[in-house]
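name: query_chain
kind: protein
chains: 1
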Amino acid sequence: MKKQKKYSSTNDLSNAFTMQHRLTVAAMSSFCLLGVLSFSMLCPFYQYSASAEGEVIDGAQTPMSLTVAATVSVSLTEFPGLSITPTTAGTTGANTTTLRVSTTSSNGYQIFMRTADGKATLQNPSGGEVNPVSGTPTLANFPNNTWGYALGKGINKDTVSYKAVPTNANSAILTANSSSTGVANDSYTLAFGAKINTSIPAGEYKNNVIVSVIATPMPEPDGLNKISTMQEMTAEICENTTVGDSKVLTDTRNNKTYTVFKAKDNNCWMRDDLMIDGTVEKANVTGGTNGTYNLTSYSNYWNTNNTYYYTATAATASTIGMSANGTSSICPTGGESNANWVLPKATQSGQSYTGPGSFAALLNAYGGVTPAVATSSELNFGYKGFVNSSGQVTSTDGYYWTRSPINSMNIYTLYFNQTTASAAYSNTYNYGEPIRCLYPSTTTKSMVQAQ
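structure:
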């Protein structure tokens, strides 16, 4: 089930039930019956769709549950009825029903109760009334011809304190917090009690009582949905993005847009090839230096059609030599001081840095280092070849730069043809290849960013 998005307080999710509260007084037998509470569903508040289940008997809907947007579920069992034989001094009686509340992705919920007509009394067509209790008496201390409710977990109807049913829903009658996971499965006892004597007229006394539950969805973590540019990305934003979620972000250097997604390796990757030229700011990694790169034709960082790049690390990679990663790149800068968009690292066994290569980790997370995985819709690497030293696009295979040199002439690359693939393939600096940048999450930053 897809996690709920963050809503304002006016978009909370609500479930509501109407209870018809009947009190019948028999004139001849002096017998009072507080009748069956029947339940009918009100439309849920706000814009969410709802479904209800329950067998309809004689126009009343018996034990049922209502679910709104899969965030809060409420069920209320049928009230079994309450029989009271009144005396001159007055007779008390009480009975209970069960209210169950279940939530997912909830930051807690509130239970509300109110009379539908705004009156606190149970009315009789002949003019008689059963008044609300005052204060919080136990059943033994009810005044004659009064009624009230009690709500709690495992309460005893005979000893619990009762209150008058509110006439409006301005205040919750109960507030509960969900667990740290946003899940609650709570069961409450809802009791109604009354004390009746023989002074009230015979007939039926009733009112409608509405019980509602409002659940507040858990705030959505500040993921990709919170930003619109590549330069705003942080490791925390990537960490808080759900795997598989994506968003189109703008590179403010030239207003090109790229689909960025949270991959199964827990990094955030571009799903499109980088397209940048001209003078760009360095995106520094560990140990990088500030400055800019001038991406002009036939320089170390020469590009063709803004998508093929020589010396892809753009970090004087040809001079740093073996056993080191490029410390800056032509990827976009990011939104924090100790992390940036970077080129992938390659595995280089026996050298000074360790950890799985970025391309290898990415492809293996989706099923393996194979051409089918590389070119799948999730990753979208393409058979785009490379640009040779004469500036011509060559080959129909796939090549993507890493930032990991092998020696002063060669650098690692992702390579795949129609049948095989390698996440640490050797190619020379004077070839131009496409670039994919990635941004680490907080859990992967130390591995991805470090040299």
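note: The longest strand covers residues 203-217.
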